[in-house]
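Per-record layout

source: Seriola lalandi dorsalis
name: ADCYAP receptor type I
length: 445
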Amino acid sequence: MSAANIILTLLLLSNSVSSQQVPSNCVIKREQEKCMEMMASDDPGNDPEFGCPWFWDNLTCWQPARMGEVVEVNCPELFSQFMSEEDFELGKVSRNCTEFGWSEAFPHYIDACLYEEGNSSHPDMYYVSVKALYTVGYSTSLVSLTTAMVILCRFRKLHCTRNFIHMNLFVSFILRAISVFIKDGVLYATEDSEHCFIHTLECRAVMIFFHYCVLSNYFWLFIEGLYLFTLLVETFFPEKRYFYWYIIIGWGTPTVCVTIWAVLRLHFDDIGCWDMNDNAAIWWVIKGPVLASIMINFVLFIGIIVILVQKLQSPDIGGNESSIYLRLARSTLLLIPLFGIHYTVFAFSPENFSKRERLVFELGLGSFQGFVVAVLYCFLNGEVQSEIKRKWRSWTVNRYFAVDLKHRHPSLASSGVNGGTQLSILSKSSSQIRMSSLQAETPAT
């Protein structure tokens, strides 16, 4: 995948939460069409005063110029998506009109429009690194979440409402990771920008699935917060009855939102693969529920912290003050990835605020959220560890007796009787021996 397509991919992923940005190669395509229209309407090619005609260099449209004239233009619109508004307005690129035609652009687009003061790293490498980071993050999350799902499904003693909610959250993270890989593979597998203007069912289906998975993930993060808050507030909590409502909210609400968004796109903004969001009103059908879930979860998070402070400082709770605050800090850190509170950092910030940092935070670090949730709420869970240890001990004991009996009683081993059956036979035999000994020791009356 080229650097331009990598940049485009990162923009679309960050666009899933908060942007109205147009993907980069689509910006180039539109600028090219505008340039071609201007060329067709105003062709000064036959005017001898203009030594250099209209020129499209794949980034900027250069108007005709006279011999010896220096033409200066602003940085292309494409780069406005990677820079702050102040830095973008300062960027200028120039070309000389010589007797041999247009000179090379100076300074280079990369130097004028992407390099920032104090940052010597190549921007292409920056975006390649971010893409590699989120690819590793989603892959790691996918493997760890799948393993956690197998563990929670395998052990019947772990089946409870709390773990069922965790399992649905794990599934939403898994679907989100899968949707990212599918979108990358389908929309940006080639080096062209055809997806900007074609109307294919495949493109639209991918975007609908992608937005559904993202919305479902946010809603299950919200449900985790709502469940824990309700558990702390209500004394008598009918978990099973509420669980059905959680299913409806977690999977049903995103279905309604994405369906409404798809219908509106089809009738009022049917452009390309639906990966651009020029119509702000339609985009709010997706963006609004996401921001609402983040905001409500943040309020629930604050409420839960207040409740934890009150409970930990209660005179009924033993321990000194330092241990109380240590437990509070640990509980707070555990709740942050479960509630997705880190999304509040950039959720309500302006679109042009810290774009590079936003990419690293939301895509790079956010891609590891599923892995962190799986580790904290499955692999490090005391209940899960106890159940795994119990199963391991049971398997080890059965295996030991099976091997031991195989060596001591070859006839039993070859008769097809398994270790568990052999163990029961030995237990019955020893019971009968003990009963016979007691009867022998009992004096006759």
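summary: The chain has two domains: 35-113, 123-389. The domain at 35-113 is CATH 4.10.1240.10 (Hormone receptor fold).
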